[in-house]
């Protein structure tokens, strides 16, 4: 298993702030996004690496864990360690990971299992889950008073990460619990923190099977910012469209649509596309809005003729 330098992948310093990491991720993700590089396998692989790095570095807990792993690996490397001989198993066990006899769970992306887009690297799976044989966190059913609740069955939790597109369309994951597989559907409209209950899938050794709760985390998307059920995006238009008006294509999660730009549109102006946001979790036939912020691309240089025309316009105003 190869070590992954996530800071290098995003081109940021190890002391980079959360905002610096977010900015670097958005820039690279836009550059290598599959929609901008159709059929380009190298760009697709790079996009996966960028998403994996952001998944770790944008999460304070994962980042702290990664920094601990990196420090131990760097110390070993500086001590003369040879590539390929580092004992990942020792580090894996030493970091509080599951050992023999405990329930193991793997959460697989169905596309990954059947060969399409693929998922995270072995390095990520080993230390951060997403198919790496993580142990469930366990809830013993305590009441608010701190006493153990009577007849309260144990429940188990597992975090899963899905894309914004999957949150829009719904998703599927294959659970592998000690070798037993079960497909789980993630409904459209889920948010980060949404719990998806999978009833009676964890065998307690003779007792009633316990429930599993999948804790959803929706990954950031370079194209959109999500606020509840609304989405925000930006569209850059040229000066002439801003002045004279016209139709421009805007990307949505359900495809491209035409947005009519009225004459005299100002930089920073917001346009609302009703029903083009996220589906409402409890109202599947209803959707939030897509808010489009307009940026105007001003020409950096003007020809003599253009300058003359603009001077004429200024004189007429």
TrEMBL record:
InterPro entries xrefs: DnaJ_C, DnaJ_domain, DnaJ_domain_CS, HSP40/DnaJ_pept-bd, J_dom_sf
GO MF, one example: zinc ion binding
Cellular component aspect of the GO annotation: cytoplasm
Pfam family, one: DnaJ
Single Gene Ontology BP annotation: protein refolding
Superkingdom field: Bacteria
Feature: compositional bias, Low complexity: 135-147
The UniProt record lists the keyword Zinc-finger: yes
Keyword annotations: Chaperone, DNA-binding, Metal-binding, Repeat, Zinc, Zinc-finger
Domain J: 5-70
Residue segments, region Disordered: 134-156
Record bears the keyword Chaperone: yes
PANTHER family: CHAPERONE PROTEIN DNAJ, DNAJ HOMOLOG 1, MITOCHONDRIAL-RELATED
Protein name listed in UniProt: Curved DNA-binding protein
């Amino acid at each position: 298993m190869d070590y992954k330098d996530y800071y290098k992948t995003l081109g940021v310093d190890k002391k980079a702030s959360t905002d610096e990491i977010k900015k670097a991720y958005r820039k690279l993700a836009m550059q290598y996004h599959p929609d901008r590089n159709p059929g380009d396998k190298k760009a697709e692989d790079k996009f996966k690496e960028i998403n994996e790095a952001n998944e770790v570095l944008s999460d304070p807990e994962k980042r702290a864990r990664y920094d601990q792993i990196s420090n131990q690996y760097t110390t070993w490397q500086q001590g003369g360690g040879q590539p390929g001989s580092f004992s990942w198993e020792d580090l894996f066990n030493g970091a509080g990971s599951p050992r023999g006899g405990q329930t193991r769970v793997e959460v697989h992306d169905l596309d990954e299992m059947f060969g399409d887009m693929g998922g995270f690297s072995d390095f990520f799976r080993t230390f951060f889950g997403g198919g790496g044989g993580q142990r469930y966190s366990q809830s013993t059913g305590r009441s608010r008073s701190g006493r153990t609740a009577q007849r309260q069955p144990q429940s188990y939790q597992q975090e899963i990460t899905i894309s914004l597109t999957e949150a829009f369309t719904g998703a599927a994951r294959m659970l592998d619990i000690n070798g037993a597989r079960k497909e789980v559907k993630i409904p459209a409209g889920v948010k980060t923190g949404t719990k998806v209950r999978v009833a009676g899938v964890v065998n307690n050794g003779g007792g009633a099977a316990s429930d599993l709760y999948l804790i959803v985390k929706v990954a950031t998307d370079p194209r959109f910012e999500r606020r509840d059920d609304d989405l925000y995006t930006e569209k850059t238009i040229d000066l002439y469209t801003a002045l004279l008006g016209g139709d421009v294509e805007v990307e949505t999660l359900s495809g491209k649509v035409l947005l009519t730009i009225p004459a005299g549109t100002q930089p920073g102006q917001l346009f609302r596309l009703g029903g083009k946001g996220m589906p409402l979790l409890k109202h599947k036939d209803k959707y939030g809005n897509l808010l489009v912020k307009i940026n105007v691309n001003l020409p950096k240089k003007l020809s003599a003729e253009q300058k003359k025309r603009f001077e004429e316009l200024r004189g007429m105003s």
